[in-house]
Amino acid sequence: MRTGVERPRRTTLEEFLSNGDPEIAKVYLAIAEGATRLAGELPFQTGMAGGTNSSGDAQATLDVFSNDLFADLLLETGVVGEVASEEMETSRRASGDRDHALSVAMDPLDGSSNITTNSPLGSIFGIWRGRLPQSGRALVSAMFVTYGPQLTLCFNFGRSVCQFVEMRAGPQSGEFVLAAEGIHLPEEPEVYGIGGDRVKWTPRVEEFVRSLEARGLRLRYGGTFIGDYNQVLRRGGIFAYPELQGKPNGKLRVLYESAPVSFLTELAGGSSTTGKGSVLDIHPKALAETAPCYIGSRRLVQEIEERFSTH
Ligand code: AFP
Prior knowledge:
By secondary structure, the chain is α+β, with helices and mostly antiparallel strands. It folds into two domains: 13-181, Fructose-1,6-Bisphosphatase, Chain A, domain 1; 191-309, D-Maltodextrin-Binding Protein, domain 2, CATH 3.40.190.80. The chain has seven helices and 15 strands. Helix 2 packs antiparallel against helix 3. The longest helix has 20 residues, at 22-41. 47% of the residues are buried. The structure holds 1,6-di-O-phosphono-alpha-D-fructofuranose. The site of 1,6-di-O-phosphono-alpha-D-fructofuranose has 12 residues, from loops.
């Protein structure tokens, strides 16, 4: 079918990255290749693998597939010395002395309980120089992938947060092309998404959420961090996986999930907190360490800290 609309050629990921750090470019391109291959596997891999990951979550076959796919592609770049993953107990390392190489911490498939329902999925990558674990402040770069109606990559290029989308038709079909750069998280909040069972929220979290509702923010929660967070990034508001009763450190892993996303959030003009200070200031002692996180529009994040300091 002809659309009748003139579609100008758009900047490809390779062209765009050729103006930046060549090592980071190799990592980003490896992730882009993995994302395309993983998206192609979605209709085929729908079962459970039978094992559990480092946090005790049941693994889907796609969790195992995506972990091996991205770990292999990243180590094959020759610039990555260590890959740590939510799906592995210990990190995988390249041979030789690679202490000053790049290290990548990843959640290769975020939201795997959404595979069977065809809801958005994600992948998250934090890139550091030197051995892991390190704090989010030491991040060099970060990227996340959304597998939704569109396959997108969101990452920092220097201090600019950019989005690329995979074309599925037309002369650039199969290529990632520039969709947005200099993304700014709107200060005026529109949406919120808070994880965990509401009955387990602490009174101060419950009170904060009630105040968001009273201000007319719209609830957006689908159970995939990246899908829910991406709405906050583009529409303004807050995503949280809060402290829970009996689970004061929440659920999300600092290295694999909350630090990379907090890093991109700050570059986009937003901020993050654990309730006491920025997620980026946590120095995790273990790869799979968790912490509560509240990420989004700067004013709401500051409000959380103010409310929690008196509560
Ligand atoms: P799964 O990968 O097991 O689906 O977990 C996804 C996740 O880590 C994160 O993406 C969500 O924000 C969070 O869990 C949802 O958890 P709750 O169901 O407890 O809200």
